[in-house]
Amino acid sequence: MKRRISLFIFIAITVSGSIFAETVQDELWKNKILYLSGSFGLGPIMGPDVTALGGSLNPVQIDWQVTRWLSVGTGINFYFGPQAKYTAPKQTDPNSGIMETYSGVETHILFPLLLKYTLRPKIFSIEIGGGVYAAPVVMSTMVERTNDNGYTTSEAYGKKLFSAKGNNPFGFIVSGGFGVKAGQGIIFMDLRYLRDFSEVTIKFKDEKIGSHLWNMIAVNVGYKIGFFK
Q: How far apart are CA 134 and CA 109, in angstroms?
């Protein structure tokens, strides 16, 4: 009888330990110190005259889980869209006589600093937060050439004829996201709103051709994985 009771207790302890170990293992995905993620998405860029579809690419995002509920995040993000394309007046190349149209394409490079409230019950992940960002602007020049026969070609131009300058490169960002556990990481979708604190001035050959506020909503999809228990 004692042997049966001892055997029963041994089996119970072994099963309980196994279940506890599996539970702890299943919880490891949401008890990490650092989280590394990448995402991409689309969203409207909103201007005073037009709203256009833009894109976002966030190849590196790092979140430091300060406490169970709070995290601090930063990274490098790229935001671009057709509204940020500025076309200069057509000109005739004196060497070839070909009509040329120059277009400057603007890309925002964001370095955000976010403070987020995080909640990870069971297999779900919820994050809400906001912060500021520094956003240097990079301009590239495209040229469209039309010959006497009306044939047009478009290509990158070797010289930087366009430039962008902001009185203040900083802006604010608001973010909210929802995720689901996938393996040891999280598949997530987040919604971000970005807005510059001041206007960016666009110049063509040092002549001002326009100005605007970067004002965008982006819906991103990505994957996040944690490191260090």
A: 8
Alpha-carbon distance values, 94 to 97, 99, 100, 196 (Å):
5, 9, 11, 40
Instruction: Specify whether the CB–CB gap between 224 and 37 falls below 8 A.
Output: yes
Amino acid identity, residue 53? L
CA 106 centroid distance within chain:
16
Dihedral angle over CA of 222, 138, 200, 77, nearest 10: 20
- Which 3 state secondary structure label does DSSP give 61? strand
d(CA 38, CA 119): 20
In what helix (H) or strand (E) does residue 3 lie, and over which residues does it extend?
helix 2-27
Question: In degrees, to the nearest 5, what angle opens at C-alpha 152 toward C-alphas 93 and 212?
Answer: 75
Give which of 48, 39, 117 is closest to 79, Cα–Cα.
Answer: 39
Q: CA-CA distance, 25 to 29, in Å (whole number)?
A: 8
CB atoms within 10 A of CB 54: 22
Mean pLDDT per 10-residue interval, the chain, length 229 residues? 52 41 57 92 77 86 92 91 70 74 84 93 92 88 69 66 82 94 91 90 85 87 91
Contact present, 69 and 48 (Cβ < 8 Å): no
Q: Determine how β-strand 137-146 pairs with β-strand 99-119.
A: antiparallel
Pair 227, 127: CB distance under 8 Å: no
| Secondary structure letter of residue 177 according to DSSP | E
Query: pTM to 2 decimals?
Result: 0.73
Which of these, 172, 212, 210, lies nearest to 193 by C-alpha position?
172
